[in-house]
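NAD(P)H-dependent oxidoreductase subunit E
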Amino acid sequence: MAEAPQIPDEAETRARWGAFAWTEENQKKTNEILGRYPKGREQSASLPLLDLAQRQVGAETQTQGWLPVPVIEFVARVIGQPYMRVYEVATFYTMFNMAPVGRYHVQVCGTTPCLLGGSDDVLAACKNRGLVKGATTPDGLFTLTEVECLGTCANAPMVQINDDNFEDLDYDRTTAILEALAAGQSPTPGSTIGRKSSEPAGGPVALKAMVDENHDYRGEWA
């Protein structure tokens, strides 16, 4: 399912990212993050600092971001840990990109609920838009990855694009999202058929007396 990331040449990577350092704003965020942990527990900051580093790389490259080895080494120095300890974290979580991606990282869930719900149609829409699994489109806009469960099974099939989930997809709705992104628009995340809070596709079927027409809970939950 997962395609091997195409990591750039090491010399090229080090030439581009060997002098990586926090921006002034991200240095302030780093200080705040490290302040959450007792002395000697800085390793616990691996996840938020790797995320911050990936976002800074993304801002500098106008993409969704990735983690070059020199950037991981930088984070390791910040928290006083061996490089391998931080590299283990970065390679364990699929939220971290180990190779360059496009402006929009399209992660299509192919696990059973999404597969049964029609993820093949979602992948077909991606393919017909020129997306290829494990690759970035020539214009640098889209990188396509097939991933394991993203936890939105009730609204399957779904994709995660950068920080947003798009749910209840089919071929046409997927195509519309990709076209909107390519045009510089910001499609509304969440269910593409207007469902709220993963309710049944036909609307609530239980406790109807407790739900008004706008699906807002009444009583002690209001």
